[in-house]
Amino acid sequence: MIKEGELYFPTKEFQKKAWVKNAKIYKEAEKDPVKFWENLAAQLFWFEKWEKPFVHQPPYFQWFVNGKINITSNIFEKNLQGWENIKNKAALIWEPEPIEQSVKILTYEELFKKVCCLANGLKKLGVKKGDRVGIYLPMISEAIISILACARIGVVHAVVFSAFSSAALKARLVTNEAKILITADGYYRRGQIVNLKQNADEGIKETKIEKVIVVKRAENEINWNSEKDVWYEDLIRNESEQCEAKIMDSEDLLFLLATSGSTGSPKQVMHTCGGYTIQTYWTGKWIFDFHKNDIFWCTSDPGWVTGHTYTIYSPLLNGITTLMFEGAPDWPEPDRWAQIIEKHKITIFYTAPTAIRMFEKYGADVIKKYKFATLRLLGSVGEPIDESAWLWYFREVGKERCPIVDTWWQTETGGILITSLPGIGPFKPAFTGLPFPGVKIDILENNLVILPPFSPGMFRGIYKNPQKYLETYWSQTKKNVYFTSDVAHKNEQGLIRIIGRVDDVIKVAGHRLTTGELEAAINLHSEIIESAAIGIPDEIKGEAPVVFVVYRGEKTHDEIKKEVIAQIKKEIGPIALPKEIYIIKDLPKTRSGKIMRRILKKLLVKEELGDLSTLRNPEIVEEIRKIIKL
Ligand code: PRX
């Protein structure tokens, strides 16, 4: 990499091979973004071309109207690389968590056959275009097969992160009214077997689920309900390895994905077929500079949007090899991730700042022996990356050779919308970079907003909740400006730096959680009066929740804390566990009864409190301060 002041640029060698190397592309795209995306769309396979590229009826918009497409046709038989060129190539390398188990490799043709078998099996169970299928699977190949099988036949996939609790699963299934759930007996996590089927059994109670397809993974003991449960292997055993792709309208639903783990009413964002396919293909190609021999490792679980778009759809649309690792990157040794990069000759590595900070904390000795000679590009996602983690990643993993793309996006945007392009740069630690060509971004009073024509792969609404869509994203400014809820600023070169969220979202290890859902989970405890959750900076996880719990009963603080932990695990899952729990008698409130979370945050980060005269109970502030000091 070439360094100029605080900026880095790709080497001439990297640039020579990069798909995009001339900054003129930004100007060209800006002249007519709709035309720009239209030209990109035209390169993929459509059963029928669209009539209108973009239609805007604020706050709704559509792309490639009346075009007919199927994302799996673009992955398999109509892949732009040519089916004959890719069918015998590895589509997926799967690395199991237990070291002693074997790696599984699926070629494009093998994957295609498995997708078709399951698609046929699903049809036999009676699912039709537009129906929703829940997918509650760990990081195993069947997660990819299930997602693609749904897409093949026009069924809407609704994936639920496998570490979410049964209550969180249920809340999603209730809203999306799925009739089928695909799950597994269990899975490995840090050497333990998690009984996933047990959670699934609990989660489908009082939902519309009629059949549960069970993948055999960990061979643990499970309960079996012969009326509902069917083994995955039995379902596909006699199915044909061919299944016609359903011809989908560009604006038909492709998938639903919730933005939070809330047990109340999780918002499930809607992504559609045409625009998502186009954006997913091109953002991957240009941002990760996918070339035919690349082996890409995106560490995200398919339960998150990054897993959907960049572990699965984008590399496969580009005809390259994607790697999926079942376990935690530091298990059983802190350098497991480094071993995987070397063993599988990973060329592009994409992970979250939390993982980078964790690798850094293990110390340089742990990875001294690795040269990472195959790596040529690195990526970061999910939360702001601070300068020191950026530099460590750059030096110790990229060996000062690999550009780092710090990619900003959201579940709602469906794909990356801000980052420097690797063949152009510049790369500046802690800055994401420039908007992707054809995307108009602005910063209004520090708020990051997206302007029309938005992007083809952005979500089209919240499932069954148009009011929430309007309120959350379109009512802050004008109805034709998308409000991201991120605070950002721009430097002289126009590079964007993301500061953080303005709403109640906290990014815990890159995972999205709202303080509201955490409080709602805790408040379900019958003896707890109320609670307040606050996100505070954390050295490794970026942010971590701290909760204040109002309890006036007889139990000891330790007992209540244990119950709070159990309650959160039950309602959301272990990712939402707080860093600290404080049991208090009251929360600071205004005279109208509003909880002053701002004051709690200031107490935690030891900032000046300012004027407390608006409080109804200022005396509680001192009491809380004493407890925090303990
Ligand atoms: O605050 C931003 C942060 O993650 C939020 C979106 O979270 P989620 O929907 O879970 O999607 C995460 C994966 C795309 C954003 O509003 N965020 C995401 N990427 C970055 C980021 N913050 C800073 N830098 C990033 N590169």
Quick description:
It comes from bacterium (Candidatus Gribaldobacteria) CG_4_10_14_0_8_um_filter_33_9. Residues 517-594 form the AMP-binding enzyme C-terminal domain. With 630 residues, the protein is α/β, with parallel strands linked by helices.
Q: Tell me the domain tally.
A: 2
Q: How many beta-strand runs?
A: 31
Specify the overall morphology. globular
CATH architecture tag of the largest domain:
3-Layer(aba) Sandwich
Q: Span between N and C termini? A: 49 Å
Mean pLDDT reading: 96
The major pleated sheet works out as: 7 strands, mixed
Helix content: 25-40%
Q: What does the model show?
A:
The chain is α/β, with parallel strands linked by helices and 630 residues long. The chain has 2 domains: 489 residues, Rossmann fold, CATH 3.40.50; 121 residues, GMP Synthetase, Chain A, domain 3 (2-Layer Sandwich). 31% of the residues lie in helices and 24% in strands. It is built from 20 helices and 31 strands. A 7-stranded mixed sheet has the order 7-6-19-18-20-21-22, sandwiched between helices. Helix 2 crosses helix 3. The mean pLDDT is 96. Keywords: Acetylation, ATP-binding, Ligase, Nucleotide-binding. It holds the Pfam family AMP-binding_C. One of its GO terms (molecular function) is AMP binding. Belongs to the ATP-dependent AMP-binding enzyme family. This is Acetate--CoA ligase.
